[in-house]
Amino acid sequence: MVQKVAEQDRPAHDISKAYYVIDPKMAEAQQRDMSSLLLGRRCPSCVERVLNEKKPPTVRKQIRDMSRCCAQAEDFISPTMPLKEIVFRLLLKNSNKATSLRDLHWDVTEEWAAPTHPMSISMEVMKRILDSDNFYCFKESTSKARERSRKRARRKTR
User: Fold this and answer.
1) What is the pLDDT of residues 114-124, one digit of tens each?
2) What is the maximum span of the chain, computed from C-alpha positions, in angstroms?
3) Model's pTM, two decimal places?
């Protein structure tokens, strides 16, 4: 019986190999507008520019533009934000590149925690929260996806 309890507490797979991205296709499947979700997180100058464009930018272009402009603003991420919002913005800041759960956990619990807003959460609990999300469209990716993106980035610089 003790062994059964121990097996239930153990993660199904090694969570150190869990990586996360925002999946626009998931939003589409849920009939959600990812562009609107992103627009609500843009800085005022970018909102004005996007609204004045003749053709709305793609989700990929918005994410790329946000990582270059909006995510650089000091108030883009705040310790007073909810956990999922911080993770969403961390992924946007990273151009939605596959980011390890370990890195996201460290950023949330160490970088963005504050004495007035401590964030004491285990990686396992954070993983469950991200996996059960249906608003921000977090999707678990494998570390291999991260390696592929690194290789592509290296090829572009050559």
Assistant:
1) 888 888 899 99
2) 64
3) 0.80
